[in-house]
Design a protein that fits this description.
Blueprint: E1 20-30, E2 33-42, E3 50-55, E4 60-65, E5 75-82, E6 85-91, E7 107-114, E8 120-126, E9 132-141, E10 144-153, E11 156-165, E12 168-175, E13 185-192, E14 198-205, E15 211-218, E16 224-230, E17 237-244, E18 250-256
Antiparallel strand pairs: 1-2, 2-3, 3-4, 5-6, 6-7, 7-8, 9-10, 10-11, 11-12, 13-14, 14-15, 15-16, 17-18
């Protein structure tokens, strides 16, 4: 189908250090516009997570960057919204490459704000000191936010799933999909099913430098219900998204690496 772009805007981030690569990660709709979150990488000692608000006409209303983060966070990765308010989660993951990298610390930053850009509340959410975490996706289930991504436990980076409320982390689980191999595992997408459980997809790099993927269902407390490995018999497979169909079947989307 032929699609016509009817409105487009470009927004400039002004870093201290150049060269600088800026990118948008997520967008969420408010009653009177949209909040966009993203970040940037520079050649100097500065990463630049940012949030900005645009009206329904696409005009910029306010913006803010957070170079004061002491966590080496790259971006405001995921935004959840309701009415005139929003919640944004920071991440070390870099969206413009699609990769995860090794999370540098055991904390992420959560910012709650209002549409006006004048009411803010921020807090750190921490894992155990020996673990590292990075957020790749988030969703709301009742009074909780469920966050998925990558975390380092014993033996490498594992798929991470976290439940958080206003007080911080309620629980954090790590799932070893590659049976103890030293590898990088990550979960880029979550979804809530009609029966109230959580499904997620994840991938990991195998010993032969290829990728394999998995789909998994867990209950609201993070306990695994089932998992199934997804494999491309002719090479690697990275699954990026999962969706529940009206009949209860699950649709997973990804790409082959060979």
């Amino acid at each position: 189908l032929n699609q016509i772009v009817t409105n487009a805007r470009r927004f400039r981030i002004n870093p201290t250090y150049y060269p600088f690569i800026g990118f948008a990660c997520d967008i969420a709709q408010l009653n009177d516009g949209f909040v966009i979150g993203g970040g940037g990488l520079s050649s100097g000692p500065e990463n630049l997570p940012f949030l900005l608000k645009v009206g329904m006409n696409g005009n910029l209303e306010w913006s803010g960057s957070f170079s004061s983060f002491a966590l080496d966070q790259i971006s405001m990765k995921k935004i959840l919204s309701s009415g005139d308010s929003f919640t944004a989660y920071s991440s070390y993951a870099s969206t413009y490459t699609g990769g995860c990298g090794f999370p540098p610390g055991n904390q992420i930053y959560r910012i709650k704000g209002e549409s006006t850009g004048t009411v803010w509340n921020g807090m750190l959410i921490s894992a155990a000191k020996q673990n590292k975490i990075a957020v790749l996706d988030a969703m709301e289930i009742g009074d909780y936010h469920v966050l998925g991504g990558v975390g380092s436990g014993s033996g490498g980076e594992r798929i991470m799933l976290m439940s958080a409320d206003d007080s911080g982390a309620v629980w954090i689980n790590y799932y070893d999909m590659a049976n103890g191999q030293m590898d990088i595992e990550f979960a880029p997408n979550l979804a809530c099913t009609a029966d109230g459980d959580i499904v997620l997809v994840g991938s990991w790099m195998t010993d032969d430098s290829n990728y394999r993927s998995i789909a998994m269902k867990v209950d609201p407390a993070g306990a695994a219900i089932w998992s199934v490995e997804l494999e491309n018999t002719n090479g690697g497979l990275v699954v990026r998204s999962i969706h529940e169909l009206p009949d209860g079947d699950l649709l997973a989307v990804g790409y082959t690496t060979t």
